[in-house]
Amino acid sequence: MTDAELQFAVERLEARYAAAIDDDRLEDWPLFFTETCRYQIITRENYEKKLPVGIFFANSRGMLIDRVRSLREANIYEAQRYRHILSPTLVTRREAGAVEAQTNYQVIRTTQEGAMMLFSTGRYLDRIVIGGPEPLFAEKLVLCDSRRVDTLLAIPL
Amino acid sequence: MTDAELQFAVERLEARYAAAIDDDRLEDWPLFFTETCRYQIITRENYEKKLPVGIFFANSRGMLIDRVRSLREANIYEAQRYRHILSPTLVTRREAGAVEAQTNYQVIRTTQEGAMMLFSTGRYLDRIVIGGPEPLFAEKLVLCDSRRVDTLLAIPL
Amino acid sequence: MTDAELQFAVERLEARYAAAIDDDRLEDWPLFFTETCRYQIITRENYEKKLPVGIFFANSRGMLIDRVRSLREANIYEAQRYRHILSPTLVTRREAGAVEAQTNYQVIRTTQEGAMMLFSTGRYLDRIVIGGPEPLFAEKLVLCDSRRVDTLLAIPL
Questions:
Q1: Contact (Cβ atoms closer than 8 angstroms) between residue B126 and residue B137
Q2: Which of A87, B19, C63, C93 has its CA 20 to 30 A from that of A120?
Q3: Helix pair angle (C3-22, A3-22), 10° resolution
Q4: How far apart are CA A94 and CA C135, in angstroms?
Q5: For residues A98 and A135, what is the distance between their CA atoms, to the nearest angstrom?
Q6: Which of A7, A84, A110 sits opposite B146 (nearest CB)?
Q7: Chains near C, with 3+ CB pairs < 8 A?
Q8: d(CA B30, CA B64)
Q9: Domains in chain B, ordered, with CATH?
Q10: Which residues of A touch B121 (CB under 8 A)?
Q11: Model confidence, pTM
Protein backbone atom coordinates (compact mmCIF):
# COMPACT_ATOMS: atom_id res chain seq x y z
CA MET A 1 0.00 0.00 0.00
CA THR A 2 1.42 3.38 -0.97
CA ASP A 3 1.37 6.30 1.43
CA ALA A 4 -1.44 7.90 -0.56
CA GLU A 5 -3.51 4.71 -0.46
CA LEU A 6 -2.98 4.38 3.28
CA GLN A 7 -4.02 7.98 3.76
CA PHE A 8 -7.19 7.28 1.80
CA ALA A 9 -7.99 4.23 3.93
CA VAL A 10 -7.46 6.07 7.20
CA GLU A 11 -9.45 9.15 6.21
CA ARG A 12 -12.25 6.93 4.98
CA LEU A 13 -12.40 5.22 8.36
CA GLU A 14 -12.56 8.58 10.11
CA ALA A 15 -15.30 9.81 7.77
CA ARG A 16 -17.39 6.66 8.27
CA TYR A 17 -16.91 6.90 12.03
CA ALA A 18 -18.06 10.52 12.11
CA ALA A 19 -21.00 9.81 9.81
CA ALA A 20 -22.28 7.05 12.10
CA ILE A 21 -22.34 9.44 15.07
CA ASP A 22 -23.82 12.34 13.14
CA ASP A 23 -26.51 10.07 11.67
CA ASP A 24 -27.52 8.86 15.13
CA ARG A 25 -26.49 5.33 14.19
CA LEU A 26 -24.89 4.92 17.60
CA GLU A 27 -25.27 1.14 17.49
CA ASP A 28 -22.70 1.12 14.68
CA TRP A 29 -20.22 3.11 16.72
CA PRO A 30 -18.68 0.19 18.68
CA LEU A 31 -18.18 -1.70 15.42
CA PHE A 32 -15.40 0.66 14.42
CA PHE A 33 -13.28 -0.70 17.27
CA THR A 34 -11.42 -3.95 17.86
CA GLU A 35 -12.85 -6.29 20.53
CA THR A 36 -10.19 -5.26 23.00
CA CYS A 37 -9.59 -1.58 22.54
CA ARG A 38 -9.05 1.70 24.29
CA TYR A 39 -11.44 4.58 23.87
CA GLN A 40 -10.90 7.57 26.05
CA ILE A 41 -12.20 11.11 26.20
CA ILE A 42 -9.80 13.28 28.15
CA THR A 43 -9.00 16.98 28.25
CA ARG A 44 -5.87 18.00 26.46
CA GLU A 45 -4.66 19.53 29.69
CA ASN A 46 -4.96 16.32 31.70
CA TYR A 47 -3.44 14.34 28.87
CA GLU A 48 -0.40 16.61 28.75
CA LYS A 49 0.00 16.56 32.52
CA LYS A 50 -0.36 12.77 32.37
CA LEU A 51 -3.25 12.92 34.79
CA PRO A 52 -5.29 9.80 34.27
CA VAL A 53 -8.57 11.60 34.91
CA GLY A 54 -10.67 11.18 31.82
CA ILE A 55 -14.24 12.06 30.94
CA PHE A 56 -14.95 8.62 29.63
CA PHE A 57 -12.97 5.42 29.35
CA ALA A 58 -13.63 2.02 27.82
CA ASN A 59 -11.30 -0.86 27.07
CA SER A 60 -13.57 -3.19 25.15
CA ARG A 61 -16.18 -3.09 22.47
CA GLY A 62 -18.62 -4.43 25.05
CA MET A 63 -18.20 -1.33 27.21
CA LEU A 64 -18.93 0.83 24.19
CA ILE A 65 -22.08 -1.17 23.51
CA ASP A 66 -23.13 -0.62 27.13
CA ARG A 67 -22.52 3.07 26.75
CA VAL A 68 -24.80 3.26 23.74
CA ARG A 69 -27.50 1.38 25.63
CA SER A 70 -27.31 3.89 28.49
CA LEU A 71 -27.53 6.81 26.13
CA ARG A 72 -30.56 5.27 24.42
CA GLU A 73 -32.31 4.60 27.73
CA ALA A 74 -31.70 8.11 28.93
CA ASN A 75 -32.90 9.52 25.61
CA ILE A 76 -30.04 11.95 25.85
CA TYR A 77 -28.58 11.78 22.45
CA GLU A 78 -31.64 12.32 20.28
CA ALA A 79 -32.57 15.76 21.55
CA GLN A 80 -29.64 17.34 19.76
CA ARG A 81 -27.91 16.94 16.45
CA TYR A 82 -24.18 16.73 16.01
CA ARG A 83 -21.99 17.51 13.03
CA HIS A 84 -18.35 16.54 12.80
CA ILE A 85 -15.96 18.55 10.72
CA LEU A 86 -12.62 16.78 10.41
CA SER A 87 -9.29 18.13 9.27
CA PRO A 88 -7.21 15.92 6.96
CA THR A 89 -5.56 13.15 8.98
CA LEU A 90 -1.85 13.13 9.73
CA VAL A 91 -0.35 9.66 9.81
CA THR A 92 2.44 9.80 12.38
CA ARG A 93 3.68 6.22 12.39
CA ARG A 94 3.39 3.24 10.11
CA GLU A 95 4.27 -0.30 11.01
CA ALA A 96 3.27 -3.79 9.88
CA GLY A 97 -0.48 -4.11 10.34
CA ALA A 98 -1.07 -0.84 12.14
CA VAL A 99 -0.78 2.92 11.86
CA GLU A 100 -0.87 5.79 14.29
CA ALA A 101 -2.62 8.92 13.16
CA GLN A 102 -3.98 12.17 14.49
CA THR A 103 -7.00 14.09 13.25
CA ASN A 104 -8.20 17.49 14.38
CA TYR A 105 -11.94 17.49 14.90
CA GLN A 106 -14.71 19.95 15.57
CA VAL A 107 -18.26 19.08 16.58
CA ILE A 108 -21.13 21.52 16.20
CA ARG A 109 -24.33 20.87 18.11
CA THR A 110 -27.70 22.03 16.83
CA THR A 111 -30.68 22.07 19.17
CA GLN A 112 -34.18 21.17 18.12
CA GLU A 113 -34.99 24.86 18.02
CA GLY A 114 -32.19 25.39 15.53
CA ALA A 115 -29.52 27.04 17.67
CA MET A 116 -26.02 26.05 16.61
CA MET A 117 -23.09 25.96 19.00
CA LEU A 118 -19.49 24.89 18.97
CA PHE A 119 -19.72 21.78 21.10
CA SER A 120 -16.18 20.41 21.14
CA THR A 121 -12.87 20.82 19.38
CA GLY A 122 -9.77 18.74 19.80
CA ARG A 123 -7.71 15.95 18.35
CA TYR A 124 -8.12 12.25 17.85
CA LEU A 125 -5.02 10.23 18.62
CA ASP A 126 -5.66 6.91 16.92
CA ARG A 127 -4.04 3.55 16.62
CA ILE A 128 -5.60 1.76 13.69
CA VAL A 129 -5.30 -1.90 12.82
CA ILE A 130 -5.22 -2.53 9.10
CA GLY A 131 -5.20 -5.74 7.14
CA GLY A 132 -8.71 -6.98 7.96
CA PRO A 133 -11.73 -6.37 5.72
CA GLU A 134 -11.99 -2.85 7.15
CA PRO A 135 -9.51 -0.92 9.27
CA LEU A 136 -10.50 -0.71 12.96
CA PHE A 137 -9.55 1.47 15.90
CA ALA A 138 -7.47 -0.38 18.46
CA GLU A 139 -7.13 2.90 20.32
CA LYS A 140 -8.88 6.23 20.06
CA LEU A 141 -7.99 9.00 22.46
CA VAL A 142 -10.19 12.06 22.14
CA LEU A 143 -8.29 15.06 23.46
CA CYS A 144 -10.77 17.87 24.12
CA ASP A 145 -9.42 21.40 24.06
CA SER A 146 -11.90 22.66 26.61
CA ARG A 147 -12.36 21.49 30.16
CA ARG A 148 -15.98 22.53 30.02
CA VAL A 149 -17.50 19.23 29.10
CA ASP A 150 -20.71 18.05 30.57
CA THR A 151 -19.63 14.67 31.84
CA LEU A 152 -23.21 13.51 32.23
CA LEU A 153 -23.54 13.88 28.53
CA ALA A 154 -20.52 11.81 27.58
CA ILE A 155 -21.70 11.11 24.08
CA PRO A 156 -19.38 9.57 21.53
CA LEU A 157 -17.02 12.11 20.02
CA MET B 1 -9.27 4.82 -11.64
CA THR B 2 -8.22 3.59 -8.20
CA ASP B 3 -10.25 4.43 -5.11
CA ALA B 4 -7.60 6.92 -4.03
CA GLU B 5 -7.65 8.64 -7.44
CA LEU B 6 -11.43 8.82 -7.40
CA GLN B 7 -11.30 10.30 -3.91
CA PHE B 8 -8.88 12.91 -5.16
CA ALA B 9 -11.14 13.82 -8.11
CA VAL B 10 -14.23 14.15 -5.93
CA GLU B 11 -12.55 16.22 -3.21
CA ARG B 12 -11.07 18.46 -5.86
CA LEU B 13 -14.52 19.11 -7.29
CA GLU B 14 -15.85 19.96 -3.81
CA ALA B 15 -12.92 22.28 -3.15
CA ARG B 16 -13.35 24.10 -6.47
CA TYR B 17 -17.08 24.40 -5.85
CA ALA B 18 -16.55 25.91 -2.39
CA ALA B 19 -13.83 28.25 -3.65
CA ALA B 20 -16.13 29.67 -6.34
CA ILE B 21 -18.76 30.57 -3.74
CA ASP B 22 -16.27 31.92 -1.22
CA ASP B 23 -14.58 34.01 -3.91
CA ASP B 24 -17.89 35.56 -4.93
CA ARG B 25 -17.55 34.00 -8.38
CA LEU B 26 -21.24 33.10 -8.29
CA GLU B 27 -21.47 33.05 -12.07
CA ASP B 28 -19.20 30.00 -12.03
CA TRP B 29 -21.44 28.17 -9.59
CA PRO B 30 -23.97 26.76 -12.13
CA LEU B 31 -21.08 25.44 -14.22
CA PHE B 32 -20.38 22.76 -11.61
CA PHE B 33 -23.71 21.14 -12.48
CA THR B 34 -24.99 19.12 -15.42
CA GLU B 35 -27.59 20.81 -17.65
CA THR B 36 -30.38 18.80 -16.11
CA CYS B 37 -29.65 18.50 -12.44
CA ARG B 38 -31.09 18.65 -8.98
CA TYR B 39 -29.91 21.19 -6.45
CA GLN B 40 -31.84 21.42 -3.25
CA ILE B 41 -31.34 23.07 0.11
CA ILE B 42 -33.46 21.35 2.72
CA THR B 43 -33.31 20.97 6.48
CA ARG B 44 -32.04 17.66 7.71
CA GLU B 45 -35.28 17.29 9.64
CA ASN B 46 -37.52 17.65 6.61
CA TYR B 47 -35.27 15.40 4.58
CA GLU B 48 -35.46 12.65 7.20
CA LYS B 49 -39.23 12.99 7.52
CA LYS B 50 -39.43 12.93 3.71
CA LEU B 51 -41.22 16.26 3.72
CA PRO B 52 -40.68 17.82 0.32
CA VAL B 53 -40.48 21.34 1.77
CA GLY B 54 -37.11 22.70 0.85
CA ILE B 55 -35.50 26.08 1.22
CA PHE B 56 -34.45 26.18 -2.40
CA PHE B 57 -34.90 23.86 -5.34
CA ALA B 58 -33.64 23.87 -8.91
CA ASN B 59 -33.67 21.16 -11.53
CA SER B 60 -31.63 22.74 -14.29
CA ARG B 61 -28.50 24.75 -14.75
CA GLY B 62 -30.71 27.51 -16.14
CA MET B 63 -32.55 27.84 -12.83
CA LEU B 64 -29.24 28.17 -11.04
CA ILE B 65 -28.19 30.90 -13.46
CA ASP B 66 -31.48 32.70 -12.74
CA ARG B 67 -30.81 32.40 -9.05
CA VAL B 68 -27.42 34.05 -9.39
CA ARG B 69 -28.97 36.86 -11.41
CA SER B 70 -31.53 37.51 -8.66
CA LEU B 71 -28.85 37.56 -6.00
CA ARG B 72 -26.78 40.01 -8.03
CA GLU B 73 -29.76 42.30 -8.62
CA ALA B 74 -30.67 42.30 -4.95
CA ASN B 75 -27.07 42.97 -4.01
CA ILE B 76 -27.54 40.48 -1.23
CA TYR B 77 -24.52 38.36 -1.54
CA GLU B 78 -21.78 40.96 -1.57
CA ALA B 79 -22.47 42.47 1.83
CA GLN B 80 -21.08 39.43 3.61
CA ARG B 81 -18.22 37.04 3.13
CA TYR B 82 -18.54 33.29 3.35
CA ARG B 83 -15.96 30.64 4.10
CA HIS B 84 -16.53 26.95 3.58
CA ILE B 85 -14.72 24.40 5.69
CA LEU B 86 -15.23 20.90 4.31
CA SER B 87 -14.60 17.58 5.95
CA PRO B 88 -12.99 14.86 3.83
CA THR B 89 -15.57 13.37 1.45
CA LEU B 90 -17.00 9.91 1.97
CA VAL B 91 -17.74 8.09 -1.29
CA THR B 92 -20.77 5.91 -0.59
CA ARG B 93 -21.39 4.33 -3.99
CA ARG B 94 -19.44 3.87 -7.16
CA GLU B 95 -20.86 2.82 -10.49
CA ALA B 96 -19.97 3.23 -14.15
CA GLY B 97 -19.72 6.93 -14.88
CA ALA B 98 -21.01 8.20 -11.56
CA VAL B 99 -20.38 8.25 -7.84
CA GLU B 100 -22.43 9.11 -4.80
CA ALA B 101 -20.66 10.92 -2.01
CA GLN B 102 -21.35 12.84 1.16
CA THR B 103 -19.36 15.72 2.58
CA ASN B 104 -19.87 17.48 5.90
CA TYR B 105 -19.67 21.23 5.48
CA GLN B 106 -19.53 24.29 7.63
CA VAL B 107 -19.94 27.88 6.44
CA ILE B 108 -18.77 30.85 8.47
CA ARG B 109 -20.10 34.29 7.61
CA THR B 110 -18.09 37.44 8.21
CA THR B 111 -19.82 40.80 8.11
CA GLN B 112 -18.23 43.92 6.70
CA GLU B 113 -17.58 45.05 10.26
CA GLY B 114 -15.62 41.88 10.89
CA ALA B 115 -18.03 39.87 13.04
CA MET B 116 -17.75 36.14 12.38
CA MET B 117 -20.65 33.77 12.86
CA LEU B 118 -21.41 30.15 12.24
CA PHE B 119 -23.80 30.49 9.31
CA SER B 120 -24.63 26.90 8.40
CA THR B 121 -23.50 23.36 9.03
CA GLY B 122 -24.73 20.21 7.41
CA ARG B 123 -24.01 17.64 4.76
CA TYR B 124 -23.83 17.55 1.01
CA LEU B 125 -25.38 14.48 -0.54
CA ASP B 126 -23.98 14.42 -4.05
CA ARG B 127 -24.36 12.43 -7.19
CA ILE B 128 -21.39 13.19 -9.41
CA VAL B 129 -21.00 12.36 -13.08
CA ILE B 130 -17.45 11.47 -14.00
CA GLY B 131 -15.88 10.73 -17.35
CA GLY B 132 -16.15 14.19 -18.91
CA PRO B 133 -13.33 16.75 -18.89
CA GLU B 134 -14.30 17.64 -15.31
CA PRO B 135 -16.62 15.84 -12.90
CA LEU B 136 -20.01 17.56 -12.50
CA PHE B 137 -22.83 17.46 -9.98
CA ALA B 138 -25.93 15.74 -11.34
CA GLU B 139 -27.45 16.12 -7.90
CA LYS B 140 -26.50 18.10 -4.84
CA LEU B 141 -28.71 18.01 -1.79
CA VAL B 142 -27.65 20.40 0.95
CA LEU B 143 -28.97 19.12 4.26
CA CYS B 144 -28.85 21.97 6.79
CA ASP B 145 -28.66 21.00 10.43
CA SER B 146 -30.55 24.05 11.59
CA ARG B 147 -34.07 25.08 10.69
CA ARG B 148 -33.13 28.69 11.27
CA VAL B 149 -32.31 29.66 7.75
CA ASP B 150 -33.27 32.95 6.30
CA THR B 151 -35.05 31.79 3.17
CA LEU B 152 -34.89 35.24 1.63
CA LEU B 153 -31.17 34.88 1.66
CA ALA B 154 -31.03 31.54 -0.09
CA ILE B 155 -27.49 31.93 -1.25
CA PRO B 156 -25.59 28.98 -2.70
CA LEU B 157 -24.29 26.65 -0.04
CA MET C 1 4.37 12.02 -9.01
CA THR C 2 0.68 11.56 -9.80
CA ASP C 3 -1.87 14.23 -8.97
CA ALA C 4 -3.14 12.13 -6.07
CA GLU C 5 0.38 11.67 -4.67
CA LEU C 6 1.07 15.38 -4.96
CA GLN C 7 -2.20 16.11 -3.17
CA PHE C 8 -1.15 13.78 -0.39
CA ALA C 9 2.23 15.47 -0.03
CA VAL C 10 0.74 18.95 0.11
CA GLU C 11 -2.01 18.07 2.58
CA ARG C 12 0.53 16.33 4.76
CA LEU C 13 2.64 19.48 4.86
CA GLU C 14 -0.40 21.54 5.83
CA ALA C 15 -1.36 19.06 8.55
CA ARG C 16 2.16 19.00 10.01
CA TYR C 17 2.29 22.79 9.91
CA ALA C 18 -1.01 23.12 11.76
CA ALA C 19 -0.05 20.47 14.30
CA ALA C 20 3.16 22.30 15.19
CA ILE C 21 1.22 25.48 15.97
CA ASP C 22 -1.57 23.70 17.83
CA ASP C 23 0.96 21.73 19.88
CA ASP C 24 2.75 24.91 20.93
CA ARG C 25 5.88 23.73 19.13
CA LEU C 26 6.40 27.23 17.79
CA GLU C 27 10.14 26.69 17.39
CA ASP C 28 9.34 24.19 14.65
CA TRP C 29 7.17 26.67 12.79
CA PRO C 30 9.97 28.47 10.87
CA LEU C 31 11.34 25.11 9.72
CA PHE C 32 8.37 24.67 7.40
CA PHE C 33 9.67 27.58 5.31
CA THR C 34 12.54 28.02 2.88
CA GLU C 35 15.41 30.27 4.05
CA THR C 36 14.20 33.11 1.86
CA CYS C 37 10.45 33.11 1.97
CA ARG C 38 7.37 35.22 2.24
CA TYR C 39 4.97 34.84 5.13
CA GLN C 40 2.23 37.37 5.39
CA ILE C 41 -0.97 37.73 7.37
CA ILE C 42 -3.30 40.13 5.63
CA THR C 43 -7.05 40.71 5.61
CA ARG C 44 -8.85 39.38 2.59
CA GLU C 45 -10.17 42.88 2.01
CA ASN C 46 -6.74 44.50 1.83
CA TYR C 47 -5.45 41.66 -0.30
CA GLU C 48 -8.25 42.10 -2.82
CA LYS C 49 -7.81 45.87 -2.90
CA LYS C 50 -4.06 45.27 -3.32
CA LEU C 51 -3.37 47.38 -0.25
CA PRO C 52 0.01 46.34 1.07
CA VAL C 53 -1.06 46.78 4.69
CA GLY C 54 -0.64 43.47 6.40
CA ILE C 55 -0.94 42.31 9.95
CA PHE C 56 2.40 40.56 9.86
CA PHE C 57 5.11 40.19 7.26
CA ALA C 58 8.35 38.25 7.10
CA ASN C 59 10.63 37.47 4.18
CA SER C 60 13.10 35.09 5.77
CA ARG C 61 13.16 32.15 8.11
CA GLY C 62 15.24 34.31 10.44
CA MET C 63 12.41 36.80 10.82
CA LEU C 64 10.08 33.97 11.71
CA ILE C 65 12.53 32.74 14.33
CA ASP C 66 12.65 36.27 15.78
CA ARG C 67 8.89 36.34 15.89
CA VAL C 68 8.75 33.13 17.89
CA ARG C 69 11.33 34.51 20.31
CA SER C 70 9.21 37.63 20.88
CA LEU C 71 6.10 35.56 21.47
CA ARG C 72 7.96 33.40 23.98
CA GLU C 73 9.36 36.40 25.82
CA ALA C 74 5.95 38.03 26.03
CA ASN C 75 4.41 34.78 27.19
CA ILE C 76 1.53 35.56 24.93
CA TYR C 77 1.00 32.32 23.16
CA GLU C 78 0.80 29.93 26.07
CA ALA C 79 -2.23 31.43 27.78
CA GLN C 80 -4.55 30.13 25.08
CA ARG C 81 -4.88 27.01 23.02
CA TYR C 82 -5.44 26.97 19.31
CA ARG C 83 -6.96 24.34 17.08
CA HIS C 84 -6.73 24.39 13.30
CA ILE C 85 -9.41 22.79 11.18
CA LEU C 86 -8.33 22.66 7.55
CA SER C 87 -10.43 22.03 4.48
CA PRO C 88 -8.95 19.76 1.81
CA THR C 89 -6.31 21.63 -0.18
CA LEU C 90 -6.92 22.78 -3.74
CA VAL C 91 -3.79 22.67 -5.90
CA THR C 92 -4.14 25.53 -8.38
CA ARG C 93 -0.88 25.31 -10.28
CA ARG C 94 1.81 22.72 -10.79
CA GLU C 95 5.20 23.33 -12.27
CA ALA C 96 8.64 21.76 -12.10
CA GLY C 97 9.73 21.76 -8.46
CA ALA C 98 6.86 23.81 -7.07
CA VAL C 99 3.11 23.95 -6.64
CA GLU C 100 0.63 26.64 -5.77
CA ALA C 101 -2.23 25.67 -3.55
CA GLN C 102 -4.99 27.17 -1.45
CA THR C 103 -6.43 25.81 1.77
CA ASN C 104 -9.39 27.15 3.73
CA TYR C 105 -8.63 27.25 7.43
CA GLN C 106 -10.41 27.86 10.67
CA VAL C 107 -8.77 28.40 14.05
CA ILE C 108 -10.65 27.95 17.32
CA ARG C 109 -9.18 29.43 20.47
CA THR C 110 -9.82 27.92 23.88
CA THR C 111 -9.05 29.93 26.98
CA GLN C 112 -7.61 28.42 30.14
CA GLU C 113 -11.09 28.61 31.65
CA GLY C 114 -12.42 26.50 28.81
CA ALA C 115 -14.28 29.07 26.72
CA MET C 116 -14.10 28.29 23.01
CA MET C 117 -14.27 30.97 20.35
CA LEU C 118 -13.90 31.21 16.62
CA PHE C 119 -10.56 32.98 16.40
CA SER C 120 -9.90 33.25 12.68
CA THR C 121 -11.14 31.91 9.37
CA GLY C 122 -9.64 32.45 5.97
CA ARG C 123 -7.49 30.95 3.29
CA TYR C 124 -3.87 30.04 2.90
CA LEU C 125 -2.39 30.92 -0.46
CA ASP C 126 0.76 28.86 -0.65
CA ARG C 127 3.69 28.39 -2.92
CA ILE C 128 5.38 25.13 -2.01
CA VAL C 129 8.78 23.92 -3.09
CA ILE C 130 8.92 20.18 -3.63
CA GLY C 131 11.80 17.91 -4.45
CA GLY C 132 13.77 18.21 -1.21
CA PRO C 133 13.48 15.75 1.67
CA GLU C 134 10.27 17.50 2.75
CA PRO C 135 8.17 20.07 0.90
CA LEU C 136 8.61 23.61 2.21
CA PHE C 137 6.67 26.85 1.98
CA ALA C 138 8.38 29.42 -0.21
CA GLU C 139 5.36 31.63 0.27
CA LYS C 140 2.42 31.52 2.63
CA LEU C 141 -0.17 34.26 2.52
CA VAL C 142 -2.78 34.03 5.25
CA LEU C 143 -5.89 35.84 4.11
CA CYS C 144 -8.08 36.53 7.14
CA ASP C 145 -11.78 36.98 6.53
CA SER C 146 -12.22 39.36 9.42
CA ARG C 147 -10.57 42.71 9.95
CA ARG C 148 -10.90 42.27 13.68
CA VAL C 149 -7.52 40.87 14.42
CA ASP C 150 -5.57 41.86 17.44
CA THR C 151 -2.32 42.88 15.80
CA LEU C 152 -0.47 42.77 19.09
CA LEU C 153 -1.24 39.10 19.21
CA ALA C 154 0.09 38.27 15.76
CA ILE C 155 0.59 34.62 16.48
CA PRO C 156 1.33 32.17 13.69
CA LEU C 157 -1.78 31.21 11.75
A1: yes
A2: B19
A3: 60
A4: 20
A5: 9
A6: A110
A7: A, B
A8: 6
A9: 3-144 (3.10.450.50)
A10: 83, 85, 108, 110, 116
A11: 0.95
Helix C3-22 / helix B3-22 crossing angle, nearest 10 deg: 60
CB–CB of B108 and C145 under 8 A?
yes
Q: How confident is the model at residue C55 (pLDDT cuts 50, 70, 90)?
A: confident
- Distance to chain C for B148, nearest Cα, Å: 20
pLDDT tens readout for residues B138-157: 999 999 999 876 655 668 99
Of B5, B86, B118, Cβ closest to residue C87 = B86
In A, minimum Cα distance to C6 occurs at A4
- Torsion angle defined by CA atoms of residues A35, A41, A47 and A51, in that order, rounded to the nearest 10 degrees: -90
Q: Mind telling me how many Å the CA of B144 is from chain C's nearest CA?
A: 19
User: Distance between alpha carbon B103 and the CA centroid of its chain, in Å?
Assistant: 10
Relative orientation angle of helices A3-22 and B3-22, to the nearest 10 degrees:
60
**Cβ contacts of B20 on chain C, cutoff 8 Å:** none
Among B109, A102, A157, A38, smallest CA distance to C12 is for A102
pLDDT at B36 over 70: yes
pLDDT tens profile C61-100: 999 999 999 989 887 666 789 999 999 999 999 999 999 9
* Nearest-CA distance A147 → chain C (Å): 5
Please give the Cα distance from C57 to C146 (Å, whole number): 17
Give the helix/strand (H/E) hosting A103: strand A98-111
Q: C-alpha angle C108/C113/C116, rounded to 5°?
A: 20
Nearest to C88 among A88, A105, A106 (CB): A88
